[in-house]
Each structure stands twice: as C-alpha cells, then as structure tokens.
Amino acid sequence: MRSKVALYGVALLLVAGGCGMDSKPDNPTTPKPGGTASQPPGSAPTAPATTAEIAKAAEGGNRFACELYAKLAAEKKGDNLFLSPYSISTALTMTWAGARGQTAAEMEAVLRLPTREFAEHLPPAQPGGVAPWRKIPGWPPERLHAAMAALSGGLNIAGKDGRVQLSIANALWGQKGHPFLPEFLALNKASYGAGLETVDFAGDAEGARKTINAWVEKQTQEKVKDLLPPGVLDKLTRLVLTNAIHFRGQWQEPFDPAETKDRVFRLGGGRRILAPTMKLHTHFEYAKGDDFQAVELPYRGARLAMLVLLPDRDDGLAELEKRLTPELLAGLKLARTDPVVQLPRFALTCDFRLDEQLRALGMADAFAAGKADFSGLDGVKPPSPGALFIAAVLHKAFVEVNEKGTEAGAATAVLVAKNGHAPPAFTADHPFLFLVRDRETGTILFLGRVTDPAPGAPEAPAPEPKK
C-alpha cells in the first residue's frame, strides 16, 4: 500500500424563523444583485455550463477562499488552521438561491459570485492619462448554478476514476410541514444534488441533530464527527443546508518511509521542536518567489495536487498570508525541477463558527432577524413574523498527511544529478501554507497552514554556535 493523504471538510448553515424589525435603509453603495425580478438568484439553469463559466466560478470561489482565510488567520495567530473554502462557498451559494434584495446582493459580493455587477479600469487613452471605468454586467443566476453543478460534477467524476477518491455531497434538512417553495427545492436538487430530508426541529431538535451528524459522518468516512454541537438547533430552526467533501489520494511519487526521521522544525520566536519529517528527491513542479518557495506535489492521476508555500524566513508566514490571492497563485512560475523536499507529517482538526467573519466581510443582513430576506425559500418576506435568517454557519475540517498504511518492504532509489548542479532544497522546517487544488480549473478545495506539526513534541536541542 502506498503513502496516503486524506482530507475532509464539511460546512453547513442553520436557518431559523424569527420576528423583529430593523428600519435602517439599505446601503446604496452595496452592489445590487445580478438577477432581476424575472431572474432572481433561485432561477434554475437551462443549459450546461461552458468551460469559461466553470473557470470564472472557480476564480470567484478562490477569491472568497483567500479573503475568508485572511480573516481567520488574523484572528488565530500562531495556531494551525485548516478549512475547505469550497465546502463553505457551496453551502452558502445553495442558501443564496433563496435570498432576495439586499440580502442577496451582500451574499453575492462576499462570495465573489460572478452574478454581481462590477466595474473595472480600462487602459488610459494616452500614456499618463486617466484610466476610464467599464461596467461589467453580472451573469444571470442560472449560469452560476450551471457552473457550480458542472464544477461539482467534474470533481466527483475525477474522484471515481480509481486513482483518487473524491466525493462531494449536499443535502437540505427541513422542518416537516414547512411550506418551502417548490422552485427552491427543485433548483437545489437539480444543480447541487441536494434533496430535501424532512426532520422535526420543533418537536425533536436533538433527534434532528443526531440524524444530520450521522449523515456528515457517513459522507466523510467518519472523519468529521459532531459537527452540530448540542443546543445549536431549537424549535425555531426551519432548514439546515449541508455540504460534505471527502478526499483520499496517494502521492504520484510516494515518500520512502525509511527516509522519515525526526528533524528540527522551527516554530518561530526561537522555539525548535523535533517533528517526524518525510524526505524525497525527485522531479516536482517548483518555483522560487521573491521571499518564498513553492512546490507542487501531485496525487495519482495528476489532476489534484498539494501546493506548499514556504516563506524564506522562519517568521515570514504572516507576511506571506497577507499576499495570498488568486493572482499570486496564478502567477507562480512553476517549472519541473528536482528539489529535495522535506515535509513534516501532520494531522489537523479545526472547527469554526463563521458568523462574525462573514459579517465582517460584508454579509450582515443575512444574519439579521427581521431584515434578512430569504423569501425565495418559502415566500415570507421581512419584517413579517416567521421570515427566515441565517442563525449560524459552522465548519469543521480534518487533514492528515503521513505514511500510514505503507507496506513494509525494501526499496532502492537512484538519485541522479548533473555534476555541479545543486538541486534546490525545499525544507519545510518552519511554518508554511498548503492547499489542495484542482489543477484543471484551479479550484481551491482545501486551504490551511501548519505552525506546529507535532503538538506536544519534545523540544529540539539548541543549535550549535556557528564557528
């Protein structure tokens, strides 16, 4: 059995009924939703997505990924961090399908959906002249749903070719007897494969919680457990939208377990620990940036890969995180070379409640009882009693990178280098960023950082003074 890596992520939204009223007017500078009265966010797709549409949807998802990661990274300084931005954006986009008015506008702006209208600079007519603006119309919502369906479908197909395991699943959990609009249910079923499962939040919230958690565990091969903590559901809950993603891939170039040794990992602030670290010298896609290195480790089949970004300085992770954008990733000049890669084994589990981060990014109305407009779910508009709002967004993710399951044996590796050629050394012995992405569309499936690969490990001996 070859070395394996397994990654799991899940996101959900809790939608509760409520009452109340906020008469504060909408912010006129907030982008308006791309849909019109005849084409609200819940419009179902009528034709398959094009390759360009899929790429554009993935680009927007990646921008949301980087912006949400920046919020979490700033709040959790020094901690390990791991999430699935793809899972979060999928669950929120499913919910956006039922949003209307300012609520929909804020959600599509935060999620960077191509349905929103925006403006961009054009080149000036003369050198040094003023750069004019051009208004870019948003997509009809049906095109976004088609692109999301095609993206998910393509990833699921890639996960069934026998080389890697990748599955994505969505579901709606609705209060029995609640009058959800047929068009909302039909859209989520057709575009996201999310059928409606009826539960009884009003009469048995704890039973509903256990049912949903059991589904999550099944979809993630029991790696994500207790996503919904006790007490998070109550009799006012009307809908829970869930997305679960599960990935398992074998390295295209396996690490030799015999090369794994305890090596120094520099935590920053002068602290050093000994962490089990893998080592491999072979051909990879590698790039050297201004103040960081990047190496891409493909999985079998080569469509999916882990990209590791390593700052040059031990304390350079925070600055590199500030620069993390889709443009930085797209601009990497990866070239096939033969670096000596050292990467620690690590396992992370992280869970979040994302309400405040999403509000801070600009998605405020969706969480405001009496102001949120999710009338596309059941026809009830605010401030009417019973109008729906988002009560919580919860996320939990797990990742493990190691050689478990590798069959004991003997292996010989012949490493060949040109005389005078010093291969670049990619030694991840201090905090680094990593992400798993689809090389075909660029979609970021998972994103995280490792600041301590072996919590609780013994301190490493102090380095010997330089002579």
Number of helices: 10
CATH class term of the largest domain: Alpha Beta
CATH-level-2 architecture of the largest domain: 2-Layer Sandwich
**Strand percentage:** 25-35%
| Broad shape | globular
Structural class: alpha+beta
CATH topology of the largest domain: Antithrombin, Chain I, domain 2
What's the number of structural domains?
A: 2
How widely separated are the two ends?
46 Å
Low-confidence stretches: 1-12, 16-38, 404-422
Biggest sheet overview = 7 strands, antiparallel
* N-to-C SSE string, H for helix and E for strand: EHEHHEEHEHEHEEEEEEHHEEEHHEEEE
CATH superfamily of the largest domain: Antithrombin, subunit I, domain 2
Mean pLDDT: 81
* Number of E-type strands: 19
Radius of gyration: 24 Å
Side by side, the strands of the main sheet go 2-19-18-12-11-10-13
Proportion of helical residues: 25-40%
Q: Any chance you could write out the topology, listing elements then pairs?
A:
Blueprint: E1 4-17, H1 51-75, E2 81-83, H2 85-96, H3 101-110, E3 118-121, E4 133-136, H4 141-158, E5 164-175, H5 182-192, E6 196-199, H6 201-219, E7 237-250, E8 261-268, E9 271-281, E10 284-288, E11 292-298, E12 304-311, H7 317-322, H8 326-330, E13 335-337, E14 340-344, E15 346-353, H9 355-361, H10 375-378, E16 388-402, E17 425-427, E18 432-438, E19 444-450
Parallel strand pairs: 5-6, 14-17
Antiparallel strand pairs: 1-7, 1-16, 2-19, 3-4, 5-7, 8-9, 9-14, 10-11, 10-13, 11-12, 12-18, 15-16, 18-19
Helix pairs in contact: 1-4, 4-5
